[in-house]
């Protein structure tokens, strides 16, 4: 079976950017502060599949920053290019933080041990020995991913509702044509890198049984609700911290 | 489990930091810096605007938040934003917003349109600002943006005290001129004080800004229907190729 390769470039609907708009944005880019995004220091390439459907797999380019030693937040693009589409986001937590989550919440989070040890998760452009210093930590973490734009089914716009995504947990899940395509483009070998990563270990307590969907699929559903919940005290002032 | 759950479930208090966790070691910083120099991070470098504005939870419109959007333009009609809860380097990534022109919005199915909100009021009222940029510089852009629609998913409800991102994403709505769409004055004042601006003065300055001829009634769904949206997550059979996990 083959995966759909979405590294080709369907056009987003719309007109090309006008010169005046581009110039204005050059000015704003120069004048304004970009504090939160200046923290993003790392590009990781990996694959996700839909939480209810392993047959739909997506190459995911993560751009990550650390909030602290135990927590990272990443923007996910379909390509690491100027015109890459922002398709989702991921949070990574240490095993310690993961274990503090209620069991219901743990289901959303996937383990990283296999992705890292198989070599499939890698940092484009960074030599192996340097990558491994960080990835040996990543192997022990858990991640929570939502995608908002289903590029693998050809959507030229971010339609529908957010999708919980999962990550590779064993051999035989990743479509080989998708794997070969990434290896070719980045001139890497997952197998060779995997040998170099054999020394790495996953979470100290083993992969938690509630992680990875608790072993089942997860699917999001949209529901209409009253927009002002009944029985809640609305008089309390809310101050944004 | 739903985005509309009042409380996400018990968590240990920790030291109160959001998120909790040990600080990074110097050694780790050094490794990161080294690796960073070898990577190009192109999509991040393409972010060209910082917008500070406000958003409202569609399933509970009494909850309003200040947001910081870091915006990338992909073409004249489409922008994508990484959304944070503040503008400093420790800001939490709380979601993603997509912005499209009126023309593209009209091409969406009615079902899809319900998930989007209009921007005209937010801009004309002065709530939407580009910190540090003189108003006259940004004014031509505001004319375009006033005609756009947005779709904003919030993945971390820090305003209710979540120390870690919990639950599924919540759909957000935009400030509007009536009812539940009016942003609380204390929120606006706090923002204005921080940036030393006046939302009211901007509203006056923007009075001449042309409003869109028509705002599609499928957007801002709550206005006509009194309803918002929640995302539920269901445990289900996964379609598989091989065993999982």
Automatic annotation (TrEMBL), chain A:
<dbReference type="InterPro" id="IPR010686">
    <property type="entry name" value="OBAP-like"/>
</dbReference>
<dbReference type="Pfam" id="PF06884">
    <property type="entry name" value="DUF1264"/>
</dbReference>
<comment type="similarity">
    <text>Belongs to the OBAP family.</text>
</comment>
<protein>
    <submittedName>
        <fullName>Oil body-associated protein 1A</fullName>
    </submittedName>
</protein>
Automatic annotation (TrEMBL), chain B:
<dbReference type="InterPro" id="IPR010686">
    <property type="entry name" value="OBAP-like"/>
</dbReference>
<feature type="region of interest" description="Disordered">
    <location>
        <begin position="1"/>
        <end position="27"/>
    </location>
</feature>
<protein>
    <submittedName>
        <fullName>Oil body-associated protein 2A</fullName>
    </submittedName>
</protein>
<dbReference type="Pfam" id="PF06884">
    <property type="entry name" value="DUF1264"/>
</dbReference>
<comment type="similarity">
    <text>Belongs to the OBAP family.</text>
</comment>
